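Title: Request for sanity check on (2Fe-2S)-binding protein prediction

Description:
We are preparing a figure and want to confirm that the structure record we downloaded matches what your pipeline produces today. Could someone re-run it with the sequence below and paste the raw C-alpha cells into this thread? We only need the C-alpha cell string, no images.
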Amino acid sequence: MAISLKLNGQTHQVEADPGTPLLWVIRDELKLTGTKFGCGVAACGACTVHLDGEPVRSCQTYVEDAEGAEITTIEGLDSKVSKAVQDAWVELDVVQCGYCQSGQIMSAVGLLSENPRPTVEEIDDYMDGNACRCATYQRIRAAIQRASEMMEA
C-alpha cells in the first residue's frame, strides 16, 4: 500500500505492506541507517525515533500508524536540546562501540525536551529500557546532566 511519511521535514511516498515496522521503511526504503535494529521487541531502544516529538520504538511502530505524523530520526535532529545533547556526548566521550547511541541520544533529547532539569532518578527512569552493551550508563547519565547545564547557559 502507498503511504506518505513526513520524515526529517521531507515528505516521502513509500510502498509497504500493512504491519511493516517503521524501522524497516526508514532503513531499507529511505536508506537512513542511523536508526538501528537491536532486538525487534522494543526492549533495547536502539531503534528509537521521535513521532510528533515523542520517543517511540520504530521496531514496534507500524508504518501506517506513522502516516500523518512528523517522524524525526537521528539524522534529522536539529534543535537547541539536540545540539546540547550531541555536544555533551562528545565532550564526555560517551560512545564506546556506538551501536546503541542513536537510540540513547533520541531518548535523551525526548527527556530534556520534556524536563530540562531532570534529577538523576528521573534520568535513570526515563532512560530505562535503553540498553548499552558496553555499559556506558554512567557516562550517558553524566552527558544528560551536562546537556541540561549547557541548555541553561
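Thanks, this matches our download. The helical segments are 22-29, 63-66, 80-91, 101-114, 120-127, 137-152.
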